[in-house]
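Teaching assistant here, posting this on the class forum so everyone can see the example we discussed in section. The complex has two components, and the goal was to see what a joint structure prediction looks like when all of them are supplied at once.
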Amino acid sequence: MKPDDFEQRLSRQPRRQIPPAWRAEILAAARDAQAACHPASATRHNWLETFSQQLATIFWPHPKAWAGLAAVWIFILAVNFSMRDSLPTLARQSAPPAAEVIVELKMQQRLFAELVGTYEAPDADRRKIFSPKPRSECVEILTT
Amino acid sequence: MKMPGSQEIERLYDAHAAALFAFLLNLTRDEADTRDLLQEMFVKLAREPQLLAGVREERAFLIRLAHNAAIDLMRRRGTRERTKENFAAEILSPFAPASDPDEQFFREELAAALGELPAEQRAVVHLKLWSGLTFEAIAAALDIPPNTAASRYRYGLDKLRDRLRPLYEEIK
């Protein structure tokens, strides 16, 4: 008996076939394992899908109207941000106030406080403050 | 809905499951064990898709996975189970049934003779004869030197030849 013949005869023996039903069962088990192994991604995916469906439900009746409204809001926000950004620049670009202006502002502030009645002058200045007297005394002074 | 990567698992199954089934059935001699091991393999591949990253020879890699899983299963079992395994070898054939009675008898005898081989020789004989792998590929798949693969094959084939010679001469 030639060894090659024997080997060839053995190698020609047909093997038992894998049961076809195993395919679905084994692949289902593999899919389950895959899903169990990555639950976060699956949950996130489902959440995103639900969110997109909700958005579609809301926007679908009048998509152009919603798109226009979104564009208006985007324009408003853009203008708002651009103005907010430009204000500090203007403040930085303006020159510092002169000493005379500061003195004038302080005087106006003091005068306003006196008129309102909340200003308390320093001790040195208190004597100079005019204190109104009763109207009858004023008449006596004028007549004398 | 299909998870990402499930198509890849399906492709692997369609490409390799038949060969892995025959290999595992020849090693375990038990259809239920073969099914469990096959499912265990594909579940592992689904859980850890990175296992196949950079693998050039998928078949060799999957055969190694299958071989390791089968060896682990045999180790988990004791002598009692191995005795049962040998008994099963007499009633379960890894070959398809034949319509010709002589051919069918030869296949049954071949299955019994294979069942008597040590698992390491049976694995090499199977991969050489029925998977068509070279000794280098078998060595790579089973993580053994090529010379060891060749010697195991020769020892296994000699045992099969001694066992089947009378029958082979008769029906030749």
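For the discussion questions: Residues 6-171 of chain B form a domain with the Butyryl-CoA Dehydrogenase, subunit A; domain 3 fold (CATH 1.20.140.160). The helical segments of chain B are 6-28, 31-47, 58-76, 79-91, 101-116, 119-129, 135-142, 146-171. Think about how each of these relates to the inputs above.
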